[in-house]
Hints:
By secondary structure, the chain is an alpha/beta fold. It has twelve helices and 22 strands. It has helices at about 15-25, 45-50, 55-75, 90-110, 190-200, 220-235, 325-340, 370-375, 390-395, 425-435, 440-445, 455-465; strands at about 5-10, 30-35, 115-120, 120-125, 130-135, 135-150, 150-155, 165-170, 180-185, 205-210, 240, 245-250, 255-260, 265-270, 270-275, 280, 315, 355, 360-365, 380-385, 400-410, 415-420. One of its GO terms (cellular component) is cytoplasm. InterPro entries: Class-I_Pyr_Nuc-Dis_Oxidored, FAD/NAD-bd_sf, FAD/NAD-binding_dom, FAD/NAD-linked_Rdtase_dimer_sf, Lipoamide_DH, Pyr_nuc-diS_OxRdtase, Pyr_nucl-diS_OxRdtase_dimer, Pyr_OxRdtase_I_AS.
Amino acid sequence: MSDKFDVIVVGAGPAGYVAAIRCAQLGMNTACVDDWKDADGKPSLGGTCLNVGCIPSKALLDSAEKVAQANHDFADHGISVGKVSVDVPKMIARKNDIVSNLTKGIAGLFKANKITSIHGRGRLLANKQVEVTNGSDKSTYSADNIIIAVGSLPIAIPVAEVDNDLILDNAGALDINDVPKKLGVIGAGVIGLELGSVWNRLGSEVTLFEAMDEFLAPVDKQISREAQRVFTKGQGLDIKLGAKVTATKVNKKSVKVTYSLKGEEHSETFDKLIVAVGRRANTSNIVDDAVGLKLDERGRVDVNDRCQTNIDGVYAIGDAVKGPMLAHKGSEEGVFVAESIAGQKPHLNHDTVPWVIYTHPEIAWVGITEEQAKKQKINYKTGFFPFAANGRSLAMNEKGGRVKMIADADTDRVLGVHILGPNASELISEAVLAMEYSASSEDIARTVHAHPTLSEALHEAALSVDGRALHKVN
């Protein structure tokens, strides 16, 4: 194996492996360093997202949703299934098979694109060299360009030390083999809600402890308020806002959680406890101090708008840098850097990166919220359309949620779109595309949408911006 490359990518998550593939497509001799191992101790590409994040959680969410439909929705369709039984180990095995197939797929793409895959922990040295440690073995490689894509790790909290037996992180929460009767979750953000939703649908009594007083702070308030009602009154999630966990005590088969709420101390006992309080950049010991790589106050690699670090020829992307920790954001940064290195003029607009929460109903948004529009003193107008008035949604037995559109009152340019409802994760792409082309709400309103489809709700929301929705009272 050569020890000199055009590009070395450190990390093989969605940011890193995509960067490596695009570099190779552009004719660069590329290596990718990654230290992830699967349950059998074998190298496994794909990073957190593929191994213990985005993909396995969506596999379980889909399984759990089918159980919920059988238990609660099939009867409305005239379908009788009797008592539903759940084989959780088989559900977990299916999830693992999906992960395995996809990680093998990335390995196949590396081989097809002639990318050198190097297993071990990468560490940046001076003169654009990368030291790779694999057990007791150490090797050093060099490249003209280095791309740091080391991802992120779950944030640990002293009051709830993860053992992945009774107190679990996001990875442990994906490998529970029995449905816990009572499940506690610290954190009611994206990860906490998704994991809580999985086990709630499978029959757990789920309580979420959220230290903030506000539910889903980044989400448009009109959408988050409606979502909170759906999750609590509709689905039975117990979401305790302003609840700060102060202590946990592990017993033989349970965890006692002590928390403060409105100045009073309370305690509850759970069969399992998930810690989902956020993630931090995985930048510990990724660079030799002599290199002088600049990190910010949160431990992220400091980069400019072109993903360049303070060292010439060294770039950083994905969860390791500023911005939302989203797989698709990291992937696009990977493509952007690869094409920049190749001398092209790539495009990347962080203002049109979509967000998705894969609960049921799903929540998705792009652009600014109404609250942000007010804070920025933008002259804006809004329109909305409820899924309760959408024929396809009702045919699917989906009666809640809405599409909300925010447009500039002077130019009519779309500034933000927020969706709570079925298939929101897919519907948001039309809004992203529209905003990429600087579309107006009128552009969307004059675009023909097939009937009956969920996308008509976006069409009607655009019409509603000017008070001319056709299927609701304006």
